[in-house]
Automatic annotation (TrEMBL):
Pfam family, one: DUF3634
InterPro entries, sorted: DUF3634
Domain of life: Bacteria
Protein name per its UniProtKB record: Uncharacterized protein
Length: 83
């Protein structure tokens, strides 16, 4: 079970709108997600950054199509991690 204190950030997607609900996601991730929603225009769901160990992993809701979830995760994995 995910607890809010484990969340580093939470982003909601509705159509072409991104909304940061909690935390401060990296600007590069927001820009990437904004590009995806501009291309798709029908995405709806949640992306969470969850603290694990010394880093942050992404958790995407299932309402986001698998190909988009994979794209977001691959983008995240290629970003420099703080530490």
């Amino acid at each position: 079970m995910l607890r809010r204190r484990q969340e580093s950030f939470c982003i909601t997607i509705q159509g072409i709108h991104l909304n940061v609900k909690r935390g401060r996601p990296p600007q590069a991730l927001l820009s990437h997600c904004q590009q995806l929603v501009q291309d798709a225009r029908t995405l709806r769901g949640t992306i969470r950054g969850v603290k694990r160990g010394g880093g942050v992993i992404l958790s995407c809701s299932r309402s986001i199509p698998a190909s988009y979830r994979q794209d977001i995760r691959l983008f995240w994995q290629n970003q420099p991690q703080p530490g």
